[in-house]
């Protein structure tokens, strides 16, 4: 116990009292101590406080980042002290503005960070970078000033002129108002029709909105179609130019060979006239030609030979012996039968492989 006597005892007592006060302070106001440890204070100089008071919000880009701590008078200007969260960084050219935050007129302090540098703690934003709100007092002062400078004589003269003009056009105003009345009545009578029209327009707008992608695709396809049409137009122009050139060449060719081409054209005209004259006969012959072509195709496609029937020829019974003898079917003895050791021999060579007398 001897070491706590004298000066040491006083020092230990002072340290104990300080520690007790700190512990009590931390226990009673921990949030305030945390804010003092984490928040950064700045100051701004305003020409007019504009109703700003301690406790108002401080915002950056619409977000609350701090509160106003104090508003004091410095000369003819208002000095506003505010604190921000340690996460908010302000540029060296930051501007401050007092604005209305609610419909009831509560003020807020808004900051707009600017500049490449960083605003240090307790730096003062100068008057050149701050602005105050437009108050009712200033509005009344401006109204009083403007009213005092108004030329009442000119206003009276203008009103007199307006009154005279209205008196002169009064007869025309009655029909005009009657027309407006009739227009209003017509609109009132067609209220349901207008409502249906607006409803239909809304439906059309909804459909167009739902199919906007298809409409965009249609427009893009239309652009492609226009490009293709432009290309085709250029091709048609080239074709017409080439056709004109060919026509000129043909004209020159006909002019150069008119004597030689004249007989040919005359013969061509006569052939054309003959065909035109026998057009009906040709039209009647074509169906029969079609049937004949079909029969001919069937006949030729049956085997590597051709069977034909000739109308109005002598009966086959009269020609059969001659045909048999010619082709060797009635040669020999025993009632026209060939010998056993000899086959039929044709007087005329039988075609083999499309060659008369050829080998098989």
Description:
With 360 residues, the chain is α/β, with parallel strands linked by helices. Among the domains are: 98 residues, Elongation Factor Tu (Ef-tu), domain 3 (Beta Barrel), CATH 2.40.30; 41 residues, no CATH class. The chain is built from ten helices and ten strands. The chain has an eight-stranded mixed sheet. Strands 9-10 form a two-stranded antiparallel sheet. β9 and β10 form a beta hairpin. The longest helix is centred in the middle third of the chain and has 45 residues. The mean pLDDT is 76.
Task: Offer a concise description of the structure.
By secondary structure, this protein is of the alpha/beta class.
CATH topology label of the domain at 37-134:
Elongation Factor Tu (Ef-tu), domain 3
> How much of the polypeptide forms β-strand, as a percent range?
5-15%
Cα radius of gyration in angstroms: 59 Å
| Strand count | 10
> What is the CA–CA distance across the termini?
151 Å
Q: Provide the residue-averaged pLDDT.
A: 76
Helical fraction equals: 55-70%
Structural class call reads: alpha/beta
Low-confidence stretches: none
How many individual helices? 10
**CATH A-level architecture of the domain at 37-134:** Beta Barrel
What is the approximate shape?
Answer: elongated
The largest pleated sheet is described as: 8 strands, mixed
CATH C-level of the domain at 37-134: Mainly Beta
What letter string, H or E per element, gives the SSE order? HHEEEEEEEEHHHHHHHHEE
